[in-house]
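Our preliminary data section would be incomplete without showing what the modeling component actually yields. Below, a chain of 134 amino acids is followed by its predicted structure, encoded as tokens that our downstream tools consume directly.
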Amino acid sequence: MAQEYIVRAYAKGVDQTPRKVGLVAALVRGRTVADALVILGHVPKRAAQPVIKAIESARANAANNHGLDASTLVISTLSVTTGTRLRRFKPASRGRALPFEKKTSNILVEVTGVEKPKRKPAVAAKPEAAKEEK
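Predicted structure:
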């Protein structure tokens, strides 16, 4: 029986508010990786790009580092949390400065999938068969 594995990928410091990124992430939560990438490719929001990159990173980690079958990957967790906030000031009338924060997001993607079946090693050809062909 094939065993399921969980593989993670993070995208930290995305220069968008978590609320905007969370709206896009909610569209693909719980779907297969292939479906999620197709859906996000057609979403007309800027927040879709960092979510796509995080999902593709998780897919690459699963296939290359953990030997999982890319066609069986499903997004088990897709969470968007607040990142660091950059404090800035905007000039206002009468020489004042009004503070505001540039908000960033952290995206966590966890995918689950089944391990690729192991291939049997190739059997070397018999030397007698090679001589008969000549």
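Helices lie at 18-28, 33-41, 48-65, 127-133. The domain at 4-116 is CATH 3.90.470.10 (Ribosomal Protein L22; Chain A). Preliminary results of this kind motivate Aim 1 of the renewal.
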